Amino acid sequence: MSTLDVYFREAECARLTEDPQGRLQLRYLDTWVEQQGIPVSIRLPVRPEPCEHEQVAPFVAAFLPEGGPLRERIERLLHVDSKHDFGLLAALGRECAGALSFCPEGEGPAAKLRYAELSDSQFDEWREFAHQQPLQFQDRTLRLSLPGTQSKTALYFDEHDKPYLPLNGGPTTHILKPRIPGCRPSSVFVELITMRIARAVLGEDRVPATDVWRNCYRVRRFDRPPGAPQGKPGVIRLHQEDLCLALGRMPAAKYESASEGGTLLPACFQLIDALGEQGRIRSPAVERMRLLDQVILNVLLHNPDAHLKNYALLYSEEGGLEIAPLYDSLCTSGLAFESGEANGWAPGTGPAAHTRDLSLRIGEAARIDQVRMADWEQLCEQCGFTRAFARRRVRRLAERLEQALRPTVDAILEATPAAESAAAEIVKGAGVQVATALGLNRR
Q: Are 39 and 170 within one domain?
């Protein structure tokens, strides 16, 4: 029997075990049950009885990198089976998404979180080889786990914007993604512009701050707000879980094509309603609106790859739930990918494989350039909104985007002229989507 101790911030809350047959089990500590602690997932309620494999397997997988190529690189670096989720979590789980840490039995989090100052040369070397060695910084190997298929890292930046490597499971403040080799225009600028436009439309509190740092895309972690845990300067770990896990699905089932009956977005809104009835969400109407706005905006921004793991629930410090800020939005219009192993994606996967196909169906539309007002009306009706509301909300967001598009792009180009080709493709792709939405509303 292999065991990992599970910590919610600094407090041990549960034990995760794997038996010789690969069956997983999670059991909350008696003290966590007695004090009615925050659950590690809405799928794993706090109770004396253990949570069994069928519930726990999606939970473990949700914290891990996805995709064979990325996992195989980690396997070569850490000498851990890339297909063994428990082993990967044991190797990487000290710093994860959300508030949880996974430590080998008896080790526990380090009594003192430490950071090592990161030099320019160290980072430049990592950026050059990130797609081959995503966790390696010269003589230091980071033990952190970030979901997704793209090579990336997480660093701690202090109040002077000075970067540090996290050691002993230290919490990080930003995620950094290098340019995807073979992607034209640069994925760094495409994601930056997409997210900046989204922030202009939805507001600064609903989309994280982003920039380009040493030729990498950098985004402030919404689950690591500034704070003073235990009276010390630093960051607070806020818990989160993506909607794929919240629906009890494995990461591979984040797409509509993997759904066995029913459509996925209505299930997300039904989940919000159920959590509201349980008292876990204070205002279900507000959170329903926030999720719908993100879904609409992803279509208007020509981001068909918005799947279940691109929407999440964010826990407050007291355990209440709300829809997390928008993240990982990428306008795929005009993107071109060279074939080959160097581009960070396996052949036939990643954005290149579905620059038009919708990851989550909108009404009857399976492609992003096929979405019509009838599809929005159908989706909204399935999710508990009226058809008239669907028309009003799509129109309002389209108008906001239309107003924000050019000023946002111009401001970015003034500071970053190299983003010109990315900006042109986004203006074209989002412009077509907005014009279509507004044209449909006027008919």
A: no
CA distances for 221 relative to 59, 169, 312, angstroms: 21, 16, 13
> Rounded distance, CA 114 to CA 141, Å?
14
Model pLDDT for residues 180-233, shown as the tens digit of each residue: 888 889 999 999 999 999 999 999 999 999 999 999 999 999 999 987 655 445
Q: Are 422 and 323 in contact (CB under 8 A)?
A: no
Residue ending a domain, among 220, 250, 279, is 220
Residues 272 and 185 in one domain: no
Domain count, the chain: 3
The domain of 68 spans: 2-104
What pTM was computed for the model?
A: 0.92
Torsion sign (Cα): 297, 299, 303, 309? positive
Residues 430 and 389 in one domain: yes
| CA angle centred on 168, ends 70 and 175, rounded to 5° | 45
Pairing status of strand 100-104 against strand 2-8: antiparallel
d(CA 42, CA 271): 10
